[in-house]
Write a structure and sequence with these properties.
The complex is a heterodimer. By secondary structure, chain A is α+β, with helices and mostly antiparallel strands. Chain A contains 11 helices and 14 strands. The longest helix of chain A has 19 residues. By secondary structure, chain B is α+β, with helices and mostly antiparallel strands. In chain B, 39% of the residues lie in helices and 13% in strands. The chains are: A alpha+beta, B alpha+beta. Chains A and B meet through helix 2 and helix 6 of A and strand 4 of B.
Chain lengths: 295, 223
C-alpha cells in the first residue's frame, strides 16, 4: 500500500443523521470521503493516487441496507451489494438485466463487497450497472443535513467523473420503476474476458412493443462509449418511428453515430467500440423482436 | 494524527485482538499482525485473487478491505482449511492432480474453492460452476484445467466419503502421491503460525522444533 496509513482518519457513525452531520461539517475543511465496500477506493489507496485523508465508514448505517419491492418498482438502498442483487428473487424476476449486470461485475470477491451506490459514486463511464439504471429510468435519492433530493439518474453524471451532488450529500437509495408490461430487457458487457475485466462496451436495452396506439417504449443505454453513461436518443427515436424490420435496425444502427463518442484508450479504440456498439444493438433488437431479423 | 485502534475478530476459529491503523489492509493485518503469511499479495488491486479470504463466509480480496471493517467478524484464511496437520480432501486433490504448481495463486484458489464446496452442500459442482466461482482467481501456470479437475475430484471424494466411508482408502492413495510431491503438499497447506511467532525471530527460530508434514515428509520449520 503506497498511501501513508498514519495520516488516514476514519469516522464510524451508527446513524445516518450522524453521518450526514460529519459530512456537512467536513466540507469547510477537507471533505470526508464515504467508504462502503471500498473495492474502488482501495485500488486508488494501494496505488497511492488518492489524496483524501479523512474517511466516513458507512458500514454501520442500517438505514442504507436492504431492497424494497412494491408494485411501482424497486427501492435499492445504497449499501446493497452486487451479490445481494444477483441473488435477490424479485430483482432476478422483475429486473433481470440488473441481476445479470450484477453477476458480471468483477468476480465473486468484488460482488460480495461492491455496492450499487459505490458504482454510481465512483462514476466511471465503464461502471457495469450504470447503463441498466439509465435504461430503466432510475432515480437516485441523496440526503444531506439540508434534506432529501431525488435526482433522475440520467442527470446524475455531469461530465467525466463529475457528480450532480453537493459535497455534503450522500447517496441513500436508488429507485427503479417497474418496466412497462411485456418489456424485453437485455444486458451485454463486452470485455477482454468475462470476469474481472473492465468493459470495452457495456449496454442495456429495454423494448416494449406498441400498445393501444402508443409509441413503443425504447431505451438504449451505453457505457464506455462517452465520458458518462449515455442514452442513444437518436437511435431510440429511429426505432420509435418505424415498424420493426431489418431496415429499421440498420437505420437505428446508423443513428448511433450521433449518440456515442467513444475514444481510444488502454482497453480498446474508437473504431472497435463503434462497431461493437452497433453489434450489441443488433443483437438486442433481434432478441427482443424477431421482426428485426426479417426482410 | 491517526492512532492505531484495537480490533477484535475471529481468525480460523481463534478469537484475535490486534491494534492497527483503521485503514490498514486486512491483507497486511493477517500477514503482519496475525503472522498468517499463507495469504499472498498478487496485484494489490483486486484483480488476481491471490489474497482471497473469507469474511463471514464470503470470499473477499483482502487487499481491498480496511482493517476496521473486519471488526467482530469471522475470517477464514488458507491456514484455517486443514484440521491440524491433516490436509483436507480439497488440498489433497490439489497435491495429487497438479492443481498447485508455482503456488502463488494457490492459497486464494483454495479459499475460493472451499467457499464453493461449502455452498454446494455435498453436490459436485459442474465445470462451469467451478470456473465461475474461481473467475476472480488468476493462475499463470496450470491453464486452470488441473485446478477445475482438483476441485471437482475433491467434491466427488467428499461425496463418496460421506456415502460409504470409503474416505480412508482415498486418503492413503493421495498420501502416497503427496510423498512423491513434497513441495506441492507444502503449497496447499500454508504454515500454521508458530505459537511464539510474535516474539523476535531469534527466539522463535531457536525454539521451533523440526516438524513433519501430514505425509511424513521432513519439512524445514525455520523458514
Amino acid at each position: 500500500m503506497k498511501t501513508a496509513l498514519s495520516t488516514l482518519v476514519v469516522e464510524r457513525p451508527k446513524h445516518l443523521d450522524e453521518a450526514l452531520g460529519i459530512l456537512a461539517a467536513s466540507v469547510v475543511r477537507e471533505r470526508t470521503i464515504p467508504i462502503a465496500g471500498g473495492t474502488d477506493l482501495f485500488v486508488y489507496l494501494n496505488a497511492g493516487t488518492l489524496r483524501g485523508t479523512r474517511y466516513l465508514d458507512l458500514g454501520r448505517l442500517r438505514e442504507l441496507r436492504g431492497i424494497e419491492v412494491t408494485r411501482a418498482g424497486v427501492v435499492i438502498r445504497a449499501l446493497t451489494t452486487f451479490y445481494e442483487l444477483r441473488m435477490h428473487r424479485d430483482i432476478r424476476r422483475r429486473l433481470p438485466s440488473l441481476a445479470i449486470a450484477a453477476s458480471e461485475v468483477g468476480a465473486l470477491q468484488i460482488q460480495h463487497r461492491a455496492t450499487i451506490a459505490g458504482n454510481i459514486a465512483n462514476a466511471s463511464p465503464a461502471g457495469d450497472s450504470l447503463p441498466v439504471l439509465l435504461a430503466h429510468d432510475a432515480v437516485v435519492a441523496v440526503r444531506s443535513v439540508r434534506g432529501r433530493r431525488d435526482i433522475p439518474f440520467a442527470q446524475f453524471h455531469l461530465g467525466y467523473r463529475q457528480l450532480a451532488i453537493e459535497p455534503d450529500e450522500l447517496i441513500t437509495e436508488v429507485m427503479i420503476p417497474t418496466p412497462p408490461s411485456g418489456a424485453f430487457a437485455f444486458f451485454r458487457k463486452v470485455g477482454t474476458r468475462r470476469a474481472q475485466s473492465i468493459s470495452k462496451v457495456v449496454f442495456c436495452g429495454l423494448l416494449a412493443p406498441h400498445a393501444r396506439g402508443r409509441d413503443p417504449h425504447v431505451r438504449l443505454a451505453y457505457g464506455s462509449v462517452a465520458p458518462v453513461p449515455v442514452r442513444a436518443l437518436h437511435a431510440e427515436a429511429t426505432l420509435r418511428g418505424g415498424r420493426p424490420s431489418v431496415a429499421l435496425a440498420a437505420q437505428a444502427r446508423a443513428a448511433l453515430a450521433d449518440d456515442i463518442a467513444p475514444i481510444d484508450d488502454i482497453r480498446s479504440n474508437r473504431e472497435y467500440r463503434l462497431e461493437v456498439a452497433g453489434n450489441v444493438l443488433d443483437q438486442f433488437l433481434r432478441a427482443a423482436d424477431p421482426r428485426f431479423s426479417r426482410r | 494524527m491517526s492512532k492505531s485502534i484495537p480490533l477484535k475478530f475471529v481468525v480460523n476459529g481463534k478469537p484475535t485482538q490486534v491494534s492497527v491503523p483503521p485503514m490498514k489492509r486486512l491483507l497486511d493485518v493477517l500477514r503482519e499482525e496475525c503472522r498468517l503469511t499463507g495469504t499472498k499479495e498478487g496485484c494489490g488491486e483486486g484483480e488476481c485473487g491471490a489474497c482471497t479470504v473469507l469474511l463471514d463466509g464470503q470470499s473477499v480480496n483482502s487487499c481491498l478491505v480496511p482493517a476496521f471493517q473486519a471488526e467482530g467478524r469471522k475470517l477464514i484464511t488458507v491456514e484455517g482449511l486443514a484440521k491440524g496437520r491433516r490436509l483436507t480432501l480439497l488440498q489433497q486433490a490439489f497435491v495429487e492432480m497438479g492443481g498447485a504448481q508455482c503456488g502463488i495463486c494457490t492459497p486464494g484458489i483454495l479459499v475460493s474453492s472451499f467457499e464453493l464446496l461449502a455452498r454446494s452442500k455435498g453436490c459436485v459442482p459442474s465445470e462451469d460452476e467451478v470456473r465461475e466461482a474461481l473467475a476472480g482467481n488468476l493462475c499463470r501456470c496450470t491453464g486452470y484445467q488441473k485446478i477445475v479437475d482438483s476441485v471437482r475430484a475433491a467434491a466427488s471424494a467428499a461425496r463418496r466419503g460421506a456415502k460409504s466411508k470409503a474416505a480412508p482408502r482415498a486418503k492413503a492413495k493421495v498420501a502416497k502421491t503427496a510423498r512423491a510431491k513434497p513441495r506441492a503438499a507444502k503449497r496447499v497447506r500454508a504454515k500454521a503460525p508458530k505459537k511464539d511467532a510474535a516474539r523476535p525471530a531469534k527466539t522463535a527460530r531457536a525454539k521451533a522444533p523440526k516438524t513433519r508434514t501430514a505425509t511424513g515428509t521432513k519439512r524445514r520449520s525455520s523458514r
